[in-house]
Amino acid sequence: MLRGQHVSDQPQDHNEPDRFAYSGLLDAMPDAIVLVDRAGRIAEFNVRARVMFGYTRAEVVGQSVELLLPERYRDGHVGDRAHYARSPHVRMMGAEQDLVARHKDGHEFRVEISLAPYQSAEGSLVVAAIRAAGGRHGASG
Q1: How big is the CA angle at 24 (ends 20 and 28), to the nearest 5 degrees?
Q2: How big, in percent rounded to 5, are the helix, strand and coil portions of the chain?
Q3: Alpha-carbon torsion, ordered 45, 68, 118, 125, to 10 deg
Q4: What gap in Å lies between CA 80 and CA 69, rounded to an integer?
Q5: CATH of domain 23-132
Q6: Which of 6, 24, 43, 80 lies 20 to 30 angstroms, CA to CA, from 58?
Q7: pLDDT (tens digit, 9 = 90+) per residue, 23-32?
Q8: pLDDT in tens, 10-54
Q9: 93: exposed, middle or buried (C-beta count within 10 Å: 0-12, 13-18, 19+)?
């Protein structure tokens, strides 16, 4: 199994199978990875995302992805998600604007985000690969 060096921030129930069999692979990715379900809820949140945003996995899984945005962008993002869901495809977000995310402590930082649709056993997901675009962010180094 790929969980060899998986960083766990919550107790594991070994009787319950992993929701995503590739969680360890997601944690090995160089980018922050956030998987979002059709309802806009966070389904998975890798180690880099935890560092970048300051939340534990337990704090965000099941929460609205808008939690990761400054409040002034949240309502508009719900509409953007609905538009993307009608025709999901691989694409970069924010081609015509700077994208801003929000850390748990409230500070904001610029990001670059790539989106891709993914069909899992649980249903359709959107994979968001996120990188800090400069300036202050939650990641160290």
Answers
A1: 130
A2: 25, 30, 45
A3: 100
A4: 13
A5: 3.30.450.20
A6: 80
A7: 788 988 999 9
A8: 434 443 445 556 678 898 899 999 999 999 999 999 999 999 999
A9: middle
- CB 44 within 8 Å of CB 19: yes
Cα-Cα-Cα-Cα torsion 82, 83, 84, 86, nearest 10 degrees, comes to 90
Distance CA 121, CA 79 (A): 26
Can you read off the two tokens belonging to residue 141? 């180094």
Question: β-strands 123-132, 91-92: how paired?
Answer: unpaired
Residue with tokens 């899984």: 61
Q: Is the dihedral of CA 80, 51, 6, 56 positive or negative?
A: negative
DSSP class per residue in 36-82: EETTSBEEEE-HHHHHHH---HHHHTTSBGGGGS-HHHHHHHHHHHH
Q: In this structure, how many other beta carbons lie within 10 angstroms of the beta carbon of residue 130?
A: 23
